[in-house]
Amino acid sequence: MESAKVIDFQSLTENVGRFSLRNKTFLIPEMNRIGAHLLAATFRGFGIDAKVMDTYKGLDLGKEYTSGKECYPCQITTGDILYFMKKEEERLGDAFNPQDYVYFMPESDGPCRFGMYNKYQRIVLDSFSELNGVKIGSLTTRDGYSLAGIIEKGRVRDLRKAAYFSMVVADILDRLLWRIRPYEKESGMADDFIERSMHVMEDTFETYGANKDFDKILDKLDEIIEEGKTIIDSNIPPKPLIGMVGEIYLRTHVHANQDLIRVLERYGAEVVNASVSEWMNYTAYDRLRDARIGFRLNLKQLRLGPMMEHLRKLLGFGGDLFYQEFRQKQIYKRVRSLIDLAEDHKVADLENILKEEDLFCFDVGTEACLSIAGIVEYARQGYNGVVNVYPFTCMPSMTTSAIVKPLMNELRVPYLDTPYDSGFQPGREAATRTFMYQAYQHFKRHGRKKRTITPSQRNQISTS
Ligand code: SF4
Fold first, then answer.
1. Which of 282, 395, 401 to mutate to test the pocket of ligand 1 (most atoms within 8 A of CB)?
2. What is the residue-wise DSSP string for 20-40?
3. Atom of ligand 1 nearest to the CA of 397
4. What are the pocket residues of ligand 1 if the criterion is a CB atom closer than 6 Å to any ligand atom?
5. Could you report the per-residue pLDDT of 52-74, keeping only the tens digit for each?
6. Residue 367 CA: which ligand 1 atom is closest?
7. Using CA positions, which residue lies closest to atom 5 of ligand 1?
8. Pairing status of strand 135-137 against strand 241-246
9. Which atom of ligand 1 lies nearest, measured to the CA of 117?
10. Residues contacting residue 10 through CB under 8 Å, at least 6 positions apart
């Protein structure tokens, strides 16, 4: 790839945004592996050629085309897209056409740098004469990640529903992995099983997602869970339970966080990570909250036009949130009747926790809202320790750390900050082991969050 000299800043508005995905290859970065694959499968079910790009193989390119001041996820994803394009050029030769691709990089309008990744990556792509035709497909939290304009109008709502469904199912598969791996009969069984299950669910979403045949998808999920349960060795006693929060990319990208969950498991933990759907629910909740505030303000001032505009938003975001929470609850209820996976937090409950404890405010925004309240919730539920995972210098995560550290000291719940960049911190292993030692002491003194007995376990008990 050859770097060009001239940068066209108009490109930041013209070539970043929502574009039709028809007859394009839609490139999805791999953040959470299962989530990315199920999302791509869902898009394929709608007739869109969606692909998950390999991740972390292009990290050297990412570092070469960033200054070092960017957030680590920006470096990784910059590397991912450049590496993919380099390989496509090699594969296709003269047939390579940059206009065939739309690269997916969403954004947020919060006070941190996530709103700038796609602009920055636009400048990088435009600096290569052969890549300036690659569009960046961006969804934004400003409109609650609306999908309008990327496929035919009549199918947008169905795509949104199926995409959300795929995210919840991906969360469940992740939680299933973390539930069974610490107790597996033989090392490696759980990983192999979940990888296989992910591919089964990809096929299932591709076949049934577009028709919203969600029962068929859940039937398949039931089968997977029943098989997953057979991997658990019932002779292994419960282990200390560790809750995880933090920046969404780092805590779900196993290469970026140096496979922290596995490391914690190696030192005796069972881990529950915050979900990806929680972030989706948060964006809808936050927009709804803004619309409610705007509506009240304009009502007081009797400004009819803006008032109606806020009312329209209120109904739209309210409907999205209601649907998402209803679906999520329905799926978890069904799954939890088979296995005791951790439930997800409701965003309104998290906001209430922040208000009750007077710790932080949703007006400030960012993932700190979820992380701070999530940590308090873990502590209240009897988790034996909490880990905050984030990119080095991540603003919301450092805010979280500053607020919860003294609180965790007071509550005497072990707490660990784990900031990451591409380097390997020499003290990380020792810090993790010390944390797990503390978590184990907490576990010995207080026990751990009680497992829910599932209906099928209850039946087994009563018939034995
Ligand atoms: S959340 Fe953290 S890592 Fe992500 S853009 Fe903001 S500051 Fe950077």
1. 395
2. --TTSEEEE--SSHHHHHHHH
3. 2
4. 71, 73, 112-114, 247, 391, 394-396
5. 999 999 999 999 999 988 999 99
6. 1
7. 114
8. unpaired
9. 5
10. none
Predicted model pTM: 0.94
Each residue's pLDDT tens digit, 7-30: 677 899 899 999 999 999 999 999
Q: Which residue from 108, 140, 247, 248 has its CB within 8 A of the most atoms of ligand 1, so it is best to mutate?
A: 247
Q: Give the distance (Å) from ligand 1 centre to CA of residue 421.
A: 12
- Cα of 234 vs centre of ligand 1, distance in Å, is 41
* Ligand 1 pocket: which of 253, 394, 401 to mutate (most atoms within 8 A of CB): 394
**Which of 114, 245, 388 for a ligand 1 pocket mutation test, highest count of atoms within 8 Å of Cβ?**
114
| pLDDT at residue 1, as a whole number | 65
CATH of region 238-275+345-464, choose from 3.40.50.1820, 2.60.40.1120, 3.40.50.11900, 3.40.50.2300:
3.40.50.11900
Atom index in ligand 1 nearest the CA of residue 393 equals 7
User: Among the residues of 186-344, which ranges form H helices?
Assistant: 189-208, 214-229, 248-252, 260-266, 277-300, 304-336
CB contact at 8 A, 88 and 96 = yes
Task: Encode pLDDT of 228-258 as tens digits.
Answer: 999 999 999 999 999 999 999 999 999 999 9
What's the pLDDT tens digit per position in 286-320?
999 999 999 999 999 999 999 999 999 999 999 99
> Rounded to the nearest whole angstrom, what is the distance from the C-alpha of residue 329 to the centroid of ligand 1?
29
Question: Where exactly are the structural domains of the chain?
Answer: 11-150, 238-275+345-464
Percentage of residues of the chain with pLDDT beyond 90:
88
- Mean pLDDT computed over 420-446: 95
Collapsing DSSP to helix, strand or coil, 192 comes out as: helix
Report the C-alpha gap between 437 and 239 in whole angstroms: 12
Helix (H) or strand (E) holding 351: helix 347-357
Output the six-digit token pair for 59.
């990290």
Q: What is the pLDDT of residues 148-201, one digit of tens each?
A: 889 999 999 999 999 999 999 999 999 999 999 999 999 999 999 999 999 999
pLDDT band, residue 463 (cuts 50/70/90)? very low
